[in-house]
Specification:
single chain, 80 residues, alpha+beta, Alpha-Beta Plaits, four-stranded antiparallel β-sheet, 38% helix, 31% strand
Length: 80
């Protein structure tokens, strides 16, 4: 699975306010697979995963638990 972080203005705002990261990914990935991959890659705990498909692309909102700030993960990815 390839996670591509989205760095739009809305995505950066969600990092600050909701502790949520936004990724674009392959359409065949399930929510459980996304959760396990994010936890493994960034060594964080995921609270919830929401997905949607737009323009034949799949996106995932990944909300992290409070003890894992999304800003730290975004900094590692070079988003901020």
């Amino acid at each position: 699975m390839i996670l591509k972080p989205i760095t739009s203005e809305k995505a950066v705002k969600m990092i600050d306010l909701d502790n949520t990261l936004l990724f674009q990914l392959e359409k065949r990935e399930s929510k459980d697979e996304i959760k396990k991959e994010v936890e493994r890659m960034f060594k964080v705990k995921v609270e919830k995963v929401r997905t949607f498909i737009q323009n034949n692309k799949k996106f995932a909102y990944v909300k992290l638990k409070k003890e894992n700030p999304a800003i730290d993960v975004a900094t590692k990815l070079g988003m901020i």
